[in-house]
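Hi V.,

You were right to ask for the full record rather than a summary. Here it is.
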Amino acid sequence: MNPITVIIADDDTGMRLIERKIIEKAEGFSLIAEAHDGEELIRLVEEKRPNVVFLDVEMPGKTGVECGRLIQDLDPSIIMIFATAHDQYMGDAFEVYAFDYLIKPFKVERVLQTMDRIRERFLRENDTPLPALRRPASQATGRLMLRHKDGVSFLDMNDILLIQREDRSTVIYTEGDGRYMTSDTLSETEARLDPQVFFRCHKSYIINLNKITDITPYGRWTYIVHLSGTKQDALITHEKYEELEKMFS
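Predicted structure:
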């Protein structure tokens, strides 16, 4: 497995040193950049596309939560771990689906446990899935018109597997490794889909219910949805998972 790439962001030089030492100690991780403020962090994330970001909540330029929202819109698969001396920001951090929230000063063992869970997430191939969703969904009909800079495209809705925010655009993945980008927002796209087939499982994802193969844990209160016909995964929140269970009960 390739190293799991990490960027750390904190305006405290001493804290960056501590996090750097922890990452060096953790098996399978590689630190690729450091940022001292929010603006620099966003620039580095856009340039280097890490797997994991450690970020302070209180930083100059942009707060960690503001950065988290921008990172999520850029690439929602990036794992975010917030670190702060205060716990009042925990709710805001988990609104952007933080993998974990560390209270400074934290113990090295506590951070290594989190990194173990991240490594297992990347290594996991034979997870025991959560209870299967058994109700067959109705099949979508019709076509979806996509607006983009070159005009419009038309897609068969039956071919759509996953829709997600990516690079601040809406991207649609279809059967046969198709990938289509549109200037429409995720909400605008969702409004034109069959709600019996397509499900908004996360702020950044819409999935085809007919294509779910299994769902596995991810961080706190969030899960990963695996879909047939694509290597792309989606995230689903705990609340949305409970909603999905009711739909299939």
